[in-house]
Design goal:
alpha/beta; 10 helices; binds NADP nicotinamide-adenine-dinucleotide phosphate; Ubiquitin Ligase Nedd4, Chain: W; 382 residues; 2 domains; 15 strands; Rossmann fold; 6-stranded parallel beta sheet
Length: 382
Amino acid sequence: MAALKYAGMDDTDSEDELPPGWEERSTKDGWVYYANHEEMKTQWEHPKTGKKKRCAGALPYGWEQETDDKGQIFYVDHINKRTTYFDPRQAFTIEDLQVKPKRYDGNSTALEILHARDLSDRVVLVTGANSGIGFETARTFALHGAHVILACRNQSRASKAVSLITEEWRKARVEAMTLDLASLRSVREFAEIFKARKLPLHILVCNAAVCTQPWDLTEDGLETTFQICHLGHFHLVQLLQDVLRHSAPARVVVVSSESHRFTDLVDSCGKVELNLLSPPQKEYWSMLAYNRAKLCNILFSSELHRRMSPHGVTCNALHPGNMMYTSIHRSWWLMTLLFTFARPFTKSMHVSSSLEEKREEVRDDRERYQLHTSADPCVSHR
Ligand SMILES: NC(=O)c1ccc[n+]([C@@H]2O[C@H](COP(=O)([O-])OP(=O)(O)OC[C@H]3O[C@@H](n4cnc5c(N)ncnc54)[C@H](OP(=O)(O)O)[C@@H]3O)[C@@H](O)[C@H]2O)c1
């Protein structure tokens, strides 16, 4: 139940039920008002609770707002080919008092960002989703109804992550698939299996990474950090780009790092030096390899956006925060020590109790929305 509350999908509050003859509607900019058909009047306050409400978030995927000849707003659900005067966002209304222009900052959680978004038509793929930022990302998408695939190299860790999410919300559509970015063969196999399932792909989060790894070569003969953090993802996106295009609007999100600033890819003469990407052991420094791979993430994301955005696929790179206590530090004791000292001052993976309280106050749910639309006399199927 907690999961439903976080995601703005908790059970209907019965005190909110409208008396007979009343109807809930919303204005173009999402303010909820109440129409009393018997007395032919409208008001902003709920007839029972006296509270004012506002729709939260954007329209669900595939929906569009339009205005009819009489100036009345109606909603078109392009996926199910129907129209209704009921604003689907009314499934996620929040009290007027809480509606303040929201600014996201370093303390915002993934759940806050996606609050009240209905992602039930979306297929999301997150690499390295069995721990840390990837897990939190996958969990948040799943709690908002998306079909989430955790692409992980270790099946038992991946299954554990899947269970954690489904324990939180039994109906979460979440599954694990094997993907080892240190093997281009595994990337190809993954892409083939994914494509064979004929699923769309709306969001691809290239998140997996290793940091401070001792020097090693992958089975493809490339330095491991470079291949896992960048090349594996590069190959994966290449192989899935037609699926992304067919699923447009779609997006690729590359989890990079601020540390990309502490390196470059040019030699002493200022020429791009590709050999720096997969250096031999004697020229290897793990932090530098990580920083270079993260720089590649950004260059890749920006070029991908240039090429794919005309086809409806956007691409962004991000820095998730400094020294967040995940398992990224595990390969080097010094890094673990640094992360441990920094831990009280950095972003955490845990949902704060104040956020939980906020979610408690979220009012409506998608089941109520379904009830409304099925009972809505204005619903028509096109
Ligand atoms: N934490 C921070 O402070 C911080 C700061 C800046 C950027 N980032 C970025 O945030 C992203 C997530 O990192 P995190 O902090 O959440 O670290 P994390 O907890 O260590 O997560 C990394 C994930 O990548 C997976 N992975 C590693 N090698 C893989 C491979 N060969 N194939 C597939 N998956 C593989 C790991 O799986 P296993 O469990 O099997 O190893 C793990 O699930 C990374 O891109 C990182 O560079 C993190």
